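In this notebook, the sequence line spells out the residues, with the fold written below as integer tokens. This is how one looks.
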Amino acid sequence: MQTDVPSPSRRSFLRAAAASTAGFSLAACWNIPGAFAEALTVTPRQTEGPFYPDRLPLDTDNDLILVNDNLTPAIGEITHLSGKLLDASGDPIRNALIEIWQVDGNGVYLHTRDHHAKRDANFQGFGRFLTGSSGEYYFRTVKPVPYPGRTAHIHFKVKQHGEREFITQCYIKGHPQNERDGIYRELRNAKDREAVTIDFKPMKKSKSNELEARFNIVLGSTPKQT
């Protein structure tokens, strides 16, 4: 039977990690609603691509490193990916479902048509997070690697009741393949590129060389709040 409920130990980890990340973001990247609206760059829409999972995994939580109660972690550089979902005025958007999907450490998507290499069975490949009152989201995943014909990236989809789905991608700042990537190059405006290109940097006090990355998503309208 399909279930998305993690074990008690994983639930504790996910709650603690999300709370810790939210606290960090409020201290390091605080947003007073509407105060910096003029400085915000609306996140550009991008293509969904052909590899949104055609079969969702049994585990669809926000920890992509471990699948269900499996103790073997995914291959790759563990990354704590967080950010806020904001409207054009800088106000947080709550009760929005954020989905991410990406290739594993071998460059393979969770999709039946992607079989150019052996997929890492220990990588979830897809995750979901429901934003709270601060608009904050959090995922534990791996640093993306290039896919044949594409630079390293992570896909994002934002779902809200009664609203059109918002789809975009984020990229690694300074990655040598960015400028050769056709989808990245479709972003002609420097601000648009900057809005989706983020740092993956060493996480402070991490004893296992984990990374952290922050990607705020700014929607171009003020959606209805539920």
Summary: The mean pLDDT is 86. The CA atoms of residues 202 and 211 lie 4 Å apart. The chain is about 15% helix and 25% strand. The longest strand covers residues 78-86.
